[in-house]
Amino acid sequence: MTLAKPTVLESPTLAAVKAYIRDQWHELTRSHDHILDAAYDEKIAHEKNGPWLIYVSGQEDAEQIAAHLSQFVTPEEMANIAVKPLPLESDQISGHGLLYLPGEYVVPGGRFNELYGWDSYFIVLGLLHDQEFALAKSLIEQLLYEVKHYGTVLNANRTYYLNRSQPPVLSRMVLEWFDRCHDKDWLTDTLPQLESYYYYWAVPPHLNQATGLSRYYAVADGPAPEVLYSERDEAGRSHFDRVREFYRTNTVTDYDASLYYDREADELTDLFYKGDRAMRESGLDPTNRFGPFSVDVIHYAPVCLNVLLYQMEHDIAHIYDIIEIPELAHQWRDRADRRQCLVDQYLWDEDSGFYLDYNFRSSCHRRYEYATAFYPLWGGLASPEQAQRVVDNLHRFEAPGGLRTSNFVSGNQWDAPFGWAPLQYFAVKGLLRYGYKTEALRLAEKFVAMLVKDFERCGVLLEKYDIEKCTGDVSGAIEFGYSSNEVGFGWTNGVFLELLDILEQG
What we know:
Layout: H1 14-27, E1 29-30, H2 35-39, E2 52-56, H3 62-69, H4 75-78, E3 81-85, E4 98-99, E5 105-106, H5 119-129, H6 133-150, H7 170-181, H8 184-202, E6 207-208, E7 213-214, H9 225-230, H10 239-249, E8 261-262, E9 267-268, H11 270-281, E10 300-301, H12 303-322, H13 326-346, E11 348-349, E12 354-355, E13 358-359, E14 364-365, H14 375-379, H15 384-392, E15 398-399, E16 402-403, E17 418-419, H16 421-433, H17 437-458, E18 465-466, H18 490-505
Parallel strand pairs: 2-3, 2-4
Antiparallel strand pairs: 1-5, 6-7, 8-9, 10-13, 11-12, 13-14, 15-16, 17-18
Helix pairs in contact: 1-18, 5-6, 5-7, 5-18, 6-7, 6-8, 7-8, 7-12, 8-12, 12-13, 16-17, 16-18, 17-18
InterPro entries: 6-hairpin_glycosidase_sf, 6hp_glycosidase-like_sf, Glyco_hydro_37, Glyco_hydro_37_CS
GO molecular function, one term: alpha,alpha-trehalase activity
Keywords: Glycosidase, Hydrolase
């Protein structure tokens, strides 16, 4: 059957959106030439007229780095930054700042003026689409540098992000670049960092040994500084103030609220802040997917994370195939096969025909259907029968502008009525992988058409969208976290180009 050509492909606005995206790649690029722009951070308190701090890994010489940076900027600009060696322990950091990276990278946009872990995957896809091969390679190399010098792919390259990562997609970026540029020596050189990053997730505390599956978990304590300072409402209340009010005035049945809120003292507990940081490591911040504010995420094996790790295991196996070390390729495929069995055992729910997150503390699924259930189709874990049953549930998530995050309105930006570019990408690619072309093209057209329509309204692409109303005007519906909708926007740009390609190929 020949499908009708999507009407959005006839839009005269498409050329303007593509031109906007090409311009944005360079607007959003950070380099030593503009180190002061990179150091700027609106998410944290900064002393007026004080220098912006740049921290250098202990494996590097801070004085040499400072001398190197001085070659790229004026003396006046250099006077506005202070290059310091990074303390061995994060609690010894006296003032937060930028973590030094040696090359160019692309930031998402708006208040997110640093290199983000999983945003970068979708940015790389867009850069490769626009044949920005050198910039894409440099971005990937900065993430590899983070693993070597800061211990993991960071949530982003600021000191307050040192103790958490983001969903693991680094191996996908490496192979996406290699598939176009075919540099086998470069590919081989990525393996030590890829394997190191894998073990960040595959050993405790991220590994739950009872299930053999991994979880999100942040090792730092106390409130996240960037949230405490910048995520305030019009009354000046921080996100955490609003959370305390929620606990004061609501009965929580999703989990034992006493773990996270001391009602007598009207205080959030130490475990709350650990759960809050872990929720932010998930990249889906915030949502009620794991109960209010998802602080109970530390007790779950999530669908999304374990699919991404399965993909990473296959990716590393594929790299060993390419460089012709079959015995190591076999070992990594064995890891993937074991994880696939565990995903089937713990995360597949036969009754609902859906993938659900598993609470290993209570030994049960959380029945909070979420769009991450389409990840197993993207990763190829699902059997044909499982894929069919997931697709049978598609109508529960489909909205005029694409795929909803969930069917629950919680006041959080990663729940209904909002839709985000990454979740559209995983769903569309997963549907295509299993032969559901009609459904994939329909979702892709809805999301692309919404972006084009909203671009006509405001002239930019944004971080997130209300996909019920098909608009980027979202702040009125967000009660927790930050309510702004950031301009740029890295992952929206990349996913737009990917989905547009899919529509054009038909």
